Amino acid sequence: MSALTDLLRDWMPHQRWFGSKGREWTDISEDGFLLDRSDPVLSVHRVRVTYADGPSETYLVPLSWRDHPAEDLESAFVGAVAGDGRETYAYDAMRDRDATASWLIHLVNASTVGPMHFHPAGVAYIPEGLPGDIVSGEQSNTSLIYGSEAILKLFRRLEPGLNPDVEVHDALRRTENPHIAPLLGHIEIDDPDPANPPATVAMLQTFVPNASDGWRLATASVRDLYMEGDLHADEVGGDFAADSERLGAATASVHADMAQVLPTEPAGDDWYAAAAAQMDERLTAAIEIVPQLAEQADGLRSLYAEVARSREPVVRQRIHGDLHLGQVLRTATGWIVLDFEGEPARPLASRRELDSPLRDVAGMLRSFDYAARHMLVEQPDDAQRAYRAQEWAARNRAAYCDGYSAASGLDPCGGSPLLRAFEADKAVYECVYEARNRPHWLMIPLNSLSRLTSPE
Ligand SMILES: Nc1ncnc2c1ncn2[C@@H]1O[C@H](COP(=O)(O)OP(=O)(O)O)[C@@H](O)[C@H]1O
Ligand SMILES: O=P(O)(O)O[C@H]1O[C@H](CO)[C@@H](O[C@H]2O[C@H](CO)[C@@H](O)[C@H](O)[C@H]2O)[C@H](O)[C@H]1O
Which controlled-vocabulary keywords does the entry list (predicted)? Predict the structure, then answer.
């Protein structure tokens, strides 16, 4: 094993973007190349980790190199490597501001460097020369903001094939949809196996300045309501319903444009049974991780069976795949939908499949539930606030559906068994997500499942 892989073995498990914390490593290997030779030297590494308990993963790790320790980069320090009678010091290049301009310069030049290919999007303006600031709080990806002009999202875990975020944004460029942040370019890296397509490494997108994400705004509205325990949501300052309605309309607009520029197909007879079976399988796997789900299993399975029985008309299309309040930004003029990657845990091929747009509606409806109820985690016995939470969720869910139907002509929420099943399926996914990432929030989706499975 090389000195560098030794360093990476110690460093990677502590990084937020490293998704397999706690798994036993059986091997680590890396192959790297120089992206820039000076000021500072910038190298890019594909790091393959194999595990005792399942398939290997490949992560992308850009490093910047210095001859002397850089005091202002202490938190980005990866380690020192000895060679040629002296040591060089490796840093996380995404946290080294001096190394961040490089990505944009290569994009402007549409460069190819070793296995890496830079693709600017048409005639888009790329703010070459600006340094990038890392976005704090990122999870599976790492993002850099360049001034107030552009944001580069680096996809840490490499998978062969075009990332759906790039694919969808690229297709939507033609529509000039006002609810997305336009694509400025993307970066790919060849797969070591020439039979595989390249993996997407990064996406550059227009930065939306002076915006606030939907989760922050919605939870501020809920907080206002909780302050006034005896007032209704429409009587309190900070009512969110008008925004929810606009968000419904924005979702419908993005769906319509996706259907226009990407493939669509009416659901065939076998789709319903297959969709129900897939939800069933997800439940079975989820029970292994969250055993409390077993109590709801019968109720959930009958919701899924209803999908196969009712066969509501569905035109399958590309969808967002993981729509929630944290994925939308409110600007002075309206809503922007971000991050068309789909559910991060799913394999890339399944995230590209055509599906019912009701999946996204269900995701957002779940999110209203989350926003309303997450503060109850600390006060589970506060019946008054629980009642207010229920009211807030119902009001904003209805407003969202109104906005969606006014813009699309289709009422997504009029008692659809498919929507109900999708909400349940999302809540099952959330149970697994919370059990793994925020166990103290597990009760939010678990409680929602009891409501979804009990007759009204
Ligand atoms: N185009 C953009 N303009 C402004 N902020 C953005 C933009 N894209 C992402 N962000 C900010 O970065 C955060 C993470 O972005 P996202 O694409 O959702 O990454 P992830 O896949 O890591 O969740 C968002 O919640 C948002 O606050
Ligand atoms: O990281 P992503 O944004 O791709 O999404 C993952 O993390 C989300 C949490 O940040 C998770 O969303 C769940 O929690 C949200 C509140 O934090 C809530 O608004 C969503 O409705 C709820 O699903 C998402 O499921 C997960 O894929």
Answer: ATP-binding, Carbohydrate metabolism, Glycogen biosynthesis, Glycogen metabolism, Kinase, Nucleotide-binding, Transferase
- 353-363 b/e with 16+ CB inside 10 Å = b? ebbbbbbbbbb
19 lines ligand 2 (CB under 6 A): no
Among protein residues, the one with the nearest Cα to ligand 2's atom 25 is: 430
Atom number of ligand 1 nearest to Cα 140: 22
Ligand number nearest CA of 156 is 1
DSSP helix/strand/coil, 145: strand
Per-residue pLDDT tens over the stretch 60-116? 999 999 999 999 999 999 999 987 788 999 999 999 999 999 999 999 999 999 999
**What are residue 421's phi and psi, to 5 degrees?**
-65, -40
CB 331 within 8 A of CB 210: yes
Give the distance (Å) from ligand 1 centre to CA of residue 330. 12
The runs of H, that is alpha helices, within 16-71 are none
Q: What is residue 449's predicted lDDT score, i.e. its pLDDT?
A: 95
What domains lie within the chain, and their CATH numbers?
16-93 (no CATH), 98-206 (3.30.200), 212-453 (3.90.1200.10)
How many CA atoms does the CB half-sphere of 355 hold within 13 Å?
A: 23
Ligand 2 geometric centre to CA of 385 (Å): 23
Hey, which of 138, 143, 325, 346 would you mutate to test ligand 1's pocket, going by the most ligand atoms within 8 Å of its Cβ? 143
pLDDT tens per residue, range 380-426:
888 888 888 899 999 999 999 999 999 999 999 988 999 999 999 99
Please choose from 337, 339, 437 the residue to mutate so as to test ligand 1's pocket, defined by most ligand atoms within 8 A of CB. 339
Task: List Cα–Cα distances, 296 to 374, 448, 450, 453, in angstroms.
Answer: 21, 11, 7, 7
The tens digit of pLDDT for each residue in 337-386 reads 999 999 877 888 999 999 999 999 999 999 999 999 998 888 888 888 88
Place of tokens 């000021």: 39
Sign of the CA dihedral 176, 211, 335, 154?
A: positive
Q: For ligand 2, is residue 360 a contact (CB within 6 Å)?
A: no
Q: Which of 168, 170, 167, 166 is nearest to 152 (CA)?
A: 166
